[in-house]
Design a protein that fits this description.
heterodimer, A: about 110 residues, mainly beta, six-stranded mixed beta sheet, five-stranded antiparallel beta sheet, 11 strands, about 55% strand, globular, B: about 120 residues, seven-stranded mixed beta sheet, about 0% helix
Chain lengths: ~110, ~120
């Protein structure tokens, strides 16, 4: 079946850039997402990218997609303490169905 | 973006009782709603998909008689955990999707603790 993998932990210093990586196996994935989950809270959609795009930028967030390698990354520029959270990578099909989530990457921002 | 609410945000109950969790789409009509379960420090696991007016489709391994889902209107879906036991303690998150739009909007989650 489909599988989404992420590294589980990432620590960065405040002000540095964070890069969270994700790999997926389903080549038919149409949408790829990044969600943020703060402690005890639900999911907040940060951004998503269509599979026919290579890059998407939104303020401090940059998403890069390498469809050939099935690799997705999320770069957070000028990382702040408020960015400390768990970041989930997810994929879905063309109809927004069959969501598959990665295990989440816990980002810790050190002062 | 669209708003999805869940109620209650936290619930503590005794073993053997049933608990109902509501999921509402506040500013759009959700033809499809999804229910997820999240164990501590783990990812989300899809439990079931419900389309308004029809029976929910449950994922493999999810007991439909244990987790009753009702999606009676375009803005409300309910998940009832029947005869809850401590192993049902978890974080339950719903999401909702408008027809023809792929993005899912997630609720804030409900933390269920069964004593």
């Amino acid at each position: 079946g489909e599988d989404v993998e992420q590294s589980l932990f990432l620590s960065v210093r405040e002000g540095d850039s964070s890069v969270i990586n994700c790999t997926y196996t389903d080549s038919s994935s149409t949408y790829l997402y990044w969600y943020k989950q703060e402690p005890g809270a639900g999911l907040q959609l940060l951004t998503y990218i269509f599979s026919n795009m290579d890059m998407k930028q939104d303020q401090r967030l940059t998403v890069l997609l390498n469809k050939k390698d099935k690799h997705l990354s999320l770069r957070i520029a000028d990382t702040q303490t408020g960015d400390s959270a768990i970041y989930f990578c997810a994929e879905s099909d063309n109809y927004g169905q069959n969501f598959v989530f990665g295990p989440g990457t816990r980002l810790s921002v050190l002062p | 973006g669209a708003v999805v609410s869940q109620h209650p945000s936290r619930v503590i109950c005794k073993s053997g009782t049933s608990v109902k969790i509501e999921c509402r789409s506040l500013d759009f009509q959700a033809t499809t709603m999804f229910w997820y379960r999240q164990f501590p420090k783990q990812s989300l696991m899809l439990m079931a998909t419900s389309n308004e007016g029809s029976k929910a489709t449950y994922e493999q391994g999810v007991e439909k008689d244990k987790f009753l889902i009702n999606h009676a209107s375009l803005t409300l879906s309910t998940l009832t955990v029947t005869s809850a036991h401590p192993e049902d303690s978890s974080f339950y998150i719903c999401s909702a999707r408008e027809q023809s739009i792929s993005e899912q909007f997630f609720g804030p989650g409900t933390r269920l603790t069964v004593l």
